[in-house]
Write a structure and sequence with these properties.
alpha+beta; 491 residues; 9 helices; 3 domains; 49% helix; five-stranded mixed beta sheet; disordered C terminus; single chain; 17 strands
């Protein structure tokens, strides 16, 4: 199944893609900048601690190393705190921070960085240049700052090393990443919601246009709604003009059809009278009478088709099935031939609204029910149900003699009559099929469960039209529907 994305979906999808792309790029850039800044700050802190330690170290009278006072950062005095220092002087004496305990720091020679600081000044005497390395300590990998200094009161040079655990840096960066990710995620959600709201608000006039067209198609309105923005007013005005023009075409077509019927009525009456006069005079008027009846059938047939074709163009032709059936049954049940019959109407789905003009639906149902009355022995049953995709399936059944299978399609031929002894012109079912097909429906005959004939009528409803419009389906989807319900053959 081909995936179709609407205009609104494309706009929202494009905006969301760019939002996430921009925020992902921003996250990467901000994270890289902050990560570098934090690492630089920690490394800078190492050099400050090294400078402070270098200024506090001195040698005693016997050459031992000591600090004149404690360092300002208390973390150097907490065991395994991640802040360490140590001082060596010619491998003879050493001084360790309390946080190291009895362990030492080791240097990874491969990780030596050439990042150097200015020489550390100890009481005005220039000492060695500090540089950054990496190593290991009691709690894992360390950032190390190393330098050589000359303690106060000693002529020897001491090697000083200060370290900070990299896990402390990584933990700080992890917390920052979590906060940054959460912040950008909230921004993304807010921006996506704003995009959806903006697109929905911006396209709302088009939604109203679509709703207006659906209302016209389903018979709830005859014009497009007013009060739309100037950008779509020209479109709706053009649609209203087209609707009015279509109504005028329908009106003229119906008027011309009526005028044609009246214009032909008098000449046909004269020809029929002439045929009867010839018969009365002892002359053969059979040909004239036969051709006049044939001409009358053709005129009635074409007028029905013209009227149905004109009605089909009316977007507001919507009739409830139950109302139309009840009206026809109520009228036909008063016929002398129908007074002996029982009429059954299944009203389960009689609320279905058929997309058909009222007079055309009356002609369709009138012909079918009248035909059932003509052949029924004791009862006529009308059943309405909803088929798949919202189509309405109407069955008109009788308990008469039925129609042979080989004649079930032939009865729809114009002028075809199976029993010449039964009154009729052979036009009814032919007109029914033509009119039904003009509305996108189907009609076919099967055997009835009550013993006679069952005429199946499949007609589009407002639910079917709405579903087809929503799914962008064509009326050709009716064909497989009919195949599921009966033995329809192409007519």
């Amino acid at each position: 199944m081909k995936l179709q994305i609407g205009f609104r979906g494309r706009l929202v999808a494009a905006a969301i893609i760019w939002i996430f792309f921009g925020l992902a790029t921003s996250w990467y850039a901000i994270d890289s900048i902050i990560r570098g800044h934090v690492i630089d700050e920690f490394q800078e802190e190492l050099f400050h601690h090294g400078a402070e330690l270098a200024n506090l170290i001195e040698a005693g009278s016997s050459g031992e190393l000591r600090l004149r006072q404690a360092l300002s950062d208390h973390r150097f005095y907490e065991a395994r705190s991640g802040y360490y220092w140590e001082i060596d002087m010619d491998r003879r004496t050493s001084l360790l921070s309390p946080s190291l305990g009895d362990q030492r720091m080791t240097v990874d020679a491969r990780s030596i960085s050439r990042k150097e600081k200015l020489p550390i000044v100890v009481e005005g005497i220039a000492s060695g240049t500090a540089h950054l390395t990496e190593g290991t300590g009691p709690t894992g990998t360390l950032y190390l700052a190393e330098t050589d200094v000359q303690p106060s009161g000693s002529a020897d040079v001491a090697h000083l090393r200060v370290g900070i655990d990299k896990a402390l840096v990584n933990e700080l960066l992890r917390k920052f990443d979590d906060l940054l990710g959460l912040s950008l995620a909230l921004i993304a959600v807010g921006l996506c919601a704003a995009v959806v709201a903006q697109v929905t608000f911006g396209l709302w006039p088009l939604t109203r246009v679509r709703q207006g067209l659906d209302a016209i198609r389903l018979g709830k309105a005859r014009r497009m709604p007013d009060g739309l923005p100037a950008e779509v007013v020209l479109l709706t005005d053009s649609l209203n003009d087209m609707i009015e023009a279509n109504d005028e075409i329908v009106r003229r077509a119906r008027t011309q059809a009526g005028n044609l019927a009246h214009a032909l009525k008098t000449p046909l009456a004269i020809l029929l009278a002439e045929g009867h006069r010839l018969d009365a005079a002892g002359l053969d008027g059979t040909i004239v009478l036969r051709e006049c009846k044939h001409l009358q059938r053709q005129i009635d047939h074409q007028l029905a088709r013209t009227r149905a074709a004109a009605s089909r163009g009316r977007p507001y032709a919507v009739i409830p099935a139950g109302l139309a059936i009840s009206r026809i049954v109520s009228a036909l049940s008063r016929l002398p031939t129908a007074r002996r019959l029982a009429f059954e109407i299944d009203e389960r789905d009689c609320d279905l609204s058929l997309m058909c003009a009222g007079d055309d639906l009356d002609e369709i149902l009138g012909n079918l029910i009248e035909n059932a009355i003509k052949w029924a022995q004791t009862r006529v049953r009308v059943h309405v149900s909803m088929a798949r995709d919202g189509m309405a399936l109407i069955m008109v059944e009788d308990d008469g003699p039925g129609i042979p299978v080989d004649a079930q399609e032939r009865v729809f031929v114009l002028g075809e009559r199976l029993d010449e002894g039964v009154p009729g012109s052979g036009l009814g079912l032919a007109i029914v099929r033509d009119v039904v097909e003009l509305y996108g429906g189907r009609v076919w005959i099967e055997g009835s469960n009550i013993g006679g004939t069952a005429v199946h009528l499949l007609m589009p409803t407002t639910k079917h039209i709405a579903s087809a419009s929503k799914e962008r389906a064509s009326d050709q989807r009716v064909v497989p529907l009919v195949a599921e319900h009966g033995t329809l053959r192409a007519g």
